[in-house]
Sequence to fold (655 residues):
Amino acid sequence: MIADLELIGLRKTYPNGATAVQDVALTVEQGEFVSLVGPSGCGKTTTLRMIAGFESITAGDVFIRGQRINDMPPEKRPTSTIFQNFALFPHMSVARNIEYGLAARGVKPAERAERSRRIMEKLDLLDIADRREAGLSGGQRQRVALARGLVVEPQILLLDEPLGALDANLRRSIQNELKLLQRTLGITFIFVTHAQSEALVLSDRIVVMNRGRIEQVSRPVDLYTRPQTPFVARFIGRNTLVGGKLTDASGSIETPYGPMRGVVANALLRRGDAAQIVLPSEALEPHRDGADHDRLVAQYDGNVLSARVLAVEVVAHTRLIRAALADGREILLEGHTGQGSAEGLAPGNPLLIGLRPEEATIVAAEQQQGKK
Amino acid sequence: MERQPILRGLLTGWTALFLVFLYSPMVVLAILSFQSGPEGGPQFPIEHWSIYWYRQLFNLVPASSVAPLPLGGALLRSLALALTTMVVSTVLGTMTAQAFRRHFRGSGVVFYLVVLGMMVPGVLVGLGMALTANYVGIDRTWWGTVFLVHVVYTYPFSFLVMLAIFNRFDRSVEEAAWSLGVSPVTTFRRITFPLIFPGVLSSMLFAFTLSYDEFPRTLFASGGDLTLPLAIYGTFSVEIHPNLFAFGVLTTLFSFALLAVYATLMTLSVRRARRVAVQEEIA
Fold:
């Protein structure tokens, strides 16, 4: 089966010498929802714009359904783009905005009307079909932009932070609509966002980018539980990273807080290499210091840290504990109130933190990532 | 402002003074145009009001010692010149501004070279054009050398107006059109142009007025057939009769009419967008 979208060794260098994107390789299957996430300036939007044809490609190739489209102008590409600011045509009504792309593609008036009516119905836009952009709310503009992009039935829909301009409540409701729409239409979505929560909710796969390169491509759950690089571990979720030296390539690391065990994410790591162990805040289980230490060590396969409570915050069933490790470093524990044995903990109390080795991940040390 | 009545008063006075100085010469001219004729030169105050000099302009009165103004041909020439200059310089200005939306090599230098066109002394440009024409061996004409000089003069204004418009123009609207399969040419015609239309109107108005009463550049660059400002100046040197004032009033009214057309088109295009917005707020 031919992939819907294939990026090979994609690179973008601007005339001033700045490289925005390099070595980007990605294969996307038909009907997949793939998000590009990363901090601003990481190259995610540039990558999207190269797929859309708005930016020239310095090196590498873009294939859509096996056809190389590097030199194809944007209006010929089987993609359509949704912009953060919606970019509606302000001098046209909603209906005309939506029909315009069909007219440009030479679709007959009768079919044009029918297709735009259908998409407006689906997105609940029929009531406002005669309005112009100035008379629309943010959510309505968003839906018009979606309808306009979808009505031309692109092979791939490119979305550039399409929810960025909306308030939090609207964002959430449109997120759900978007996911549903994508499922029912079966169109491939490439979705650029800087909000990792959005990507985690919506995507089949997430591409994390940093400094123009891809750091990791994973399903949301794997990205969350198995970060492969220190950057991803810091960017996704609320993790504490502890540095140390790998004592066993199968997953033992010597840290300033004693030996710990975890799953090694980077196959290149060898015994004796500098490495870091990723401690996810919601996998850390708090225990009173009075608990049987040896039993805890056995229960967590040796992964027990001593700490002192700094603050405890309980909201309904969730409990947030901020604690300080032996050298004063702060660590965050996030969980439900029944977890561990920590009832009645107060600031100043000693605390034992347990972590099952399969929930900890060992990644390379920071410096190594820079060299790669 | 409310708390500073003195400052407020001063500024109001200043504005009033500005308006007085702006319009009083024209008002005086207009009043003078209504004196009786054909005897007597400009005199104030008016003794007998009459439209004699307006009728004289159109040869509706018996011949007298005052010859009819020889301005008809000059008026037509100036109108034709201003209209073509307006179109050509707006098209060129828009195209140049479009080019400047992206940085290209040497764009800074080119920008200043273009804008400098409105800074150089007009008399020198006219003189230079006349000398060049002589040297190359082409005739100086209002539709040739003068037209060229006018376009060169008004083009930077058009360019600056359009540059300001494009600066506020959201590029993603065009990209959205492309991504829907609309060709770049059609995108410009159906998306970009309607959105920059107010700017195009302003640029046209600028170019028209600048060309219509251009004097220093035209002075040397023109041949035997004069443009309106030159012809009017020519009549000064003979003798000034109130028919000239009547003519001045009529051309001013024509300019106002032009401005009215501009204002109407402008409000129409702005209101069309706003009306829809207001309707929605009420609904």
User: Anything to note?
Assistant: The interface with chain A takes residues 170, 172-173, 175-184, 186, 190-191, 194-195, 272-274, 276-277, 279-281 of chain B (CB under 8 Å). The two ends of chain B are 37 Å apart (CA to CA). Residues 242-282 of chain B form the longest helix (41 residues).
